[in-house]
Amino acid sequence: MSAALTPGAVDLLLTLMEQRDPHLSAAAAAMREQEAGLLVGAGFLMPDGHEDAAVAPGDDEDVPVSLFWSDTLGGLAAFSPTAGPVLVPSERLLRQRVAMPALLAAVTADLDVLTAGPPHERVEGHAWELGEIRLGRQPQRNPLWFARRLGDRAVQRQVQAALTTRMHPRLCLLLTSTRADRLDGLDLPGASVISLRDVLVAPHGLAVSSDILVATFGGIPTRDAGRPVALSPDGRTLTINGEQRFTFTSPRQVAAIRALVDAYQEERGLPVGELTHLGGPDRLFGAKRWKELKA
Question: How many C-alpha atoms does 28 have within 13 Å on its Cβ side?
């Protein structure tokens, strides 16, 4: 089980993960002292150097000023217009960085993940291959990855390139610290992406729930066996003949594929014209994917 935190501490940690540089400044730590303390105590934050500027203690202006060494005070000091040189406590200068090994271990603590060692960094500082996961009672395993900052287009391209390099015959489950509302329109072929916040066992911890993953991704569940076409409950993953899988991320794609699957299961035709308000199938899915879906 992951360390007991609070919803506020979990939110702070996942927010830090979406920063270009996932660190917590001394000033920010002071403003969220309780949450930062919990994260440090649980090992999710580690020291990352010291600030070179700080607000002088007792200074009402709250404007950071440069620090200097004071032999008289025996440490780093800041100059206050009202009090002169003032010693700045060391705890107000310490920066903290997210400890990725601890975070990734907590995320997978409750999952059945087969690993060959520590997480493998596939995109420097942004994406890690965690191993292979078994969801529910399915016999096969799926690759499991974690990525951060997937709302950034440059990061999206890097992660896509890494996934292409590591092509896998089965769907890759890609967890991310990015909020779900920033994933709209994201299409990573071969991967099904879900925000970590949506699959946690509880809001006060980082452990991911296997049951929620099964429900969210369809988990290639046993109830789909023998069904030529199966759509996951969230409408994001389409499985054809138990093997060929397509993933959809944008709301328009999900709405269109739901309409198509409903029509198929009800054995009725669905004029292409009924999808044009969603953008038209060629534009909506891309010409290549639409050709594969029609087949």
Answer: 14
Phi, psi of 14 (to 5 degrees): -70, -30
Furthest CA-CA distance within the chain: 86
Helix (H, G, I), strand (E, B) or coil at 253: helix
Q: How far apart are CA 51 and CA 32, in angstroms?
A: 17
State the Cα–Cα distance between residues 277 and 83, nearest whole angstrom.
68
Please give the average per-residue pLDDT across 151-162, as a whole number: 94
Is the pTM higher than 0.70?
no
pLDDT at 138 over 50: yes
The pair of three-digit structure tokens given for residue 229, joined into one six-digit string: 């076409």
Return d(Cα 12, Cα 18) in angstroms, integer: 10
Q: Answer yes or no: is 109 within a domain.
A: no
The verdict on residue 175 lying in a domain is no
Contacts with 271 (C-beta within 8 Å, 6 or more apart), sequence order = none
Q: How many structural domains compose the chain?
A: 1
Q: How many CA atoms lie within 13 A of 213 on its CB side?
A: 28
* CB atoms closer than 10 angstroms to residue 126: 21
224 is a domain residue: no
Averaged pLDDT, 49-65? 61
Three-class SS of residue 118? coil
What is the DSSP code string of 134-203?
--TT-SS-EEEEEES-TTSHHHHHHHHHHHHHT--SSPEEEEESS-GGG-TT---TTEEEEEGGGSBSST
Domain span at 35: 7-98
